[in-house]
Every structure is written in C-alpha cells, then in structure tokens.
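Handout, section 4.2: multi-component inputs.
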Amino acid sequence: MSVDKETVAKIANLARIAVSEDELESTAGELNNILDWVEQLSEVDTDGVEPMTSVVAAALPRRVDEVTDGGYRDQVLKNAPASEHGFFAVPKVIE
Amino acid sequence: MTELTKLTLSAARDGLHNGDFTSAEITAEHLNAIDDAKELNTYIEVTSDQAMNMAASADAMIKDGNAKGMTGIPIGIKDLYCTKGVHSQSASHILDGFKPEYESTVTSNLWNDGAVMLGKTNMDEFAMGSSNENSYYGPVINPWRATGSDKNTVPGGSSGGSAAAVAADISIATTGTDTGGSIRQPASFTGLVGFKPTYGRCSRFGMIAFASSLDQAGPLTKTVRDAAIMMESMAGYDAKDSTSINVEVPNYEAALTGDIRGLKVGIPKEYHSDGMPAAIEKLWQQGIGWLKDAGAEIVDISLPHTKYALPTYYIVAPAECSSNLARYDGVKYGLRVAGDSLDDMYKNTRAAGFGDEVKRRILIGTYVLSAGYYDAYYLKAQRVRTLIADDFKSAYQKCDVILTPTAPSEAFNLGDKVSDPLAMYLNDVFTVPASLAGLPGISVPAGLSSDGLPLGLQLLGQAFGEEQLLNVADVLETAAGFNIKPAKWWGE
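Output:
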C-alpha cells in the first residue's frame, strides 16, 4: 500500500491541515517511507491474537452518576482566541 | 557557581532538614545558574518570583517540622505539564499564549510536598522527537561535548530540556514524560538517571496528551535515590484519570537495600544488534558482570517480537496523536489563523501551528485510522502489541528484572539526523518495547563512549515492580561509580 498525492490531499483534509500543492509530493514521499517500514508487521502471524486494549489489567472505575464538579464557564473561555456572550466565537457558519 | 547547585536531591533534602542552608538560598543559586546557562536553551520560561515565594513557603514548612522529601527542592517542570497561570504549551506554536486555569495532578502532588518550581523546560513539540530539535522554541543544547570537540550535541528527547537542565546543574531534578523512551533516552545522553514507572502509576491529568495509552510521567535526577524520593511524591491514584491505578505508593527510598542476592536478571538476546557501537556492547557486558558480582543470577531470555516494537509504536502512537491533537482547532485556546470559512480557519491554524514532525505523525495517524486501512494497520499493530506484552510476561516467568542498553548510540551532533525521520525513530529501539507493554524502566549512567560521551544501561521491571527495579538500579549505579560531569563551556 502506498499513498499518492491525491491520498495525501484527502488525509490532510480529514486532519484539517492545509497542505499546499507543492508540499503534496514531498509529503507523499515521507509518508511512504514510514508506511513501507511499518509494512514489516505483515510478517507477524497474529491469527487469534486479541488486539491490545489496555496495558494494565484493570476494570474501569465506576461512580454514581451525579454532578460532582463544574461551573467553570469563565475559566474555560479564558484562553479562547475569541469569545462572545459566554460562548466560543468562530467564523460565521450559517448565512 | 557555588556548591548548592552541585547537590543531589537527597543531599539537598538532608541539608535542608538539618538547617545547613535554606530553600531560599538553594533556589536563588539555581536561578543564578539558569541565567548563566541561557545558551543551552533548556528553559522556555523561568518563574523566578514564583520560585522565591515557593521557597519561602517551603522554608516555613521545614521550620514547622512538616518537611517531606521534596520540600524546598528547586525543580524544572517539562512544558507538557499544565501549571496554573504559567506557560504550558508542550513547546508548540499552536498553544501560543495558553495559560492553564488548573494544575496537573503530578505537579500538584509535588507542590503539596513543598517542591519549588524554577520554570518550564524545553522539549520536542508535543513530546514527538528524540533529539529536542523539534521544539518551536529552538533546540536544546546538551552540556556534554565529545572529547576535544566544540560541536554541540543533542540532549536526546523528548524531555531534552529537563535532561540538560539537571546535567548542567541548573535544576536539582526535573519532571519528564516518557511515551516511547522520552525520559530514558535523554537520561542516557546526558549522564543522568531517568525513570519511567508502570503505566497508571502517575496520574496523566493535566499532562498535555500525545499518545494516551503510552504517556507516563517520571523524574530525571542525578541519582537513583533521588529518583526514588521524587517518584514517591509524583505517584498516586487520581480519580481524574481513569487509567491511574489505585495501588498504594510505597516508600521507594526504603526499597534501596543494596541487597540483590539471588535476584534473576534477564538478558534478552534480541537486544544485540549488528550496528551497535562496541563501547555499548562492552558496557552491557560490564553491567552483567557488576550485577553478577553483587550476587544476582544472570538468565538468558528471549523477547522474540522485539524487532516489531518500533513499527508497532509508529502506528499506535501516531493514531492516538491524530486523535488527541484534533482538539487544537483555533477555537478553544492558543493560536488562531483566520480563514474564509470555519474549515479554512481550522486548516490554516493547524498548518501554521504544528511543526513538521507533528504534522507528519498526525497525517500517518489519520491514514492508519481511516476507512479501509484501520484493520490492516491499527488493529494489526494492536495485535502485535499484545504479542510484545506476552513476550515480557513469558520472560518474567524466568527472571525478575531485565538489563539492556538504553540507547543504540551516544548523543549525536545537532542537525545530524534531523532530515531523516526513520533514523531518528531508531533511537528508541531499546526503550519502546517496555512502553508498549506498560512496564517500568530506568536508565542508569554507566560509562563513557570512545568520544567521552555518557552511556546508560536500562533496567526493566515488572508491572508495579518499582521497588525491586529501583533497588537493582541503585546497585548498578554504585557498581558503575559514574561520577563524571560535563566540563563547563557555557556562560561566565
């Protein structure tokens, strides 16, 4: 499996990173170097092997479903590049 | 600089407790030394006023008889930890101006015990790198240079600033984080002890995430005893991190008995690599001899999937990174670069805010998680990861700890590997397998390369086997007797 310019453009769009036309070719080369190298995993027989989900065997902790914390609107907004009326502000999305 | 900056953490603690000097004195000495070492670029931000205030509080704690191991000890904090109201950007441009409104659990634990923050240390952006050349704030310079050379070497990464700061005696100890070797490899490159505990030993709350199933906090220190003291303060269960484990934190220092008679030390045959420098192979053999002389039994073991650990890591870590770093969108914090639409604003912000290596990993991660490739790459890697963890489980049927080299080379020159990502990735060949298995590891300075640069040996332990691991590391450290410091070429 190898990626071409079109695939890089598609991934970059999914990742929401602007990549210029000039960079597509070199990026494809870099990604292919890495992907060719990880390809060696196909040598490993993993039939019947469960994928790792947690490195330490532990049950996820549970607690009663009740509000224990919160009410930090101003702190949450404090680092926002733009906020208005207690909300994050973004470029207009609806005409 | 005076002697207070040369102290180990344990000696500083004893001196503070005895009233030989105050935290204010030792903190001021370190702030002066930091000022003198600016060209190493170890600190991104120095918090002088805050440090002196914290030192005054620590001195009051000591006076009141409430001193703990870390009370009054000046330390540097990796920029990856959120510290309230203080620069916390994981050395990235995309978090420009971010000042957290909360404190990470690990740093909270340290401050509650009276530790003093000197500042935030430089690192590879979002902890992605093995040379500290990927920082938005520029590379960190290793205080160590090859014998007779005036060329700058790298301190390793990603905790390069944390490592260089301790090696240059401008911090008594520092916090680092280790995802695939980011504490242990820099420790090896700078002649320090670097300790990554078991996954889940420390809370990840308030640590800026890179790869959540691998990230773990740990200390960089001058000695194994120092690491034991600092880990006791950093570790512990935290309800705010569902992957932190509710196991009591022992007195790690008390575990340093010096007695390892009858202990079984495993030597994995797969860690012998063809290209390994002779000095490293020789040091490894010496390490085996030292532990044998101390009464340990040496056992040959096999970790058959070792060669697949790095490629597995370079699927799993980028996948998690692409997901974790999706939060940087120019909306909630940090940098925003305008665009014609919301989507363009996201894309422009992320293009301008992330460095090349971070973008590369996000793209790889996005690809391996995308429709049609998820099974072939991501699930496959997670299956191989199970096999790697199983290798260790089988090995620990035969041995108690494992001894290996920490890194396949000494510190290399600045700029040498920056254009070759794959060559850079190979730095972590000996540290990544234990990371994938969530196991604790520690690098102990053990000797010098033929060029006079430090080399570390790595000990790996069993899950939550930190006490035994530290005890063996202490014995190894004593036997190696490594007490060389870099010759000072920077500053006044």
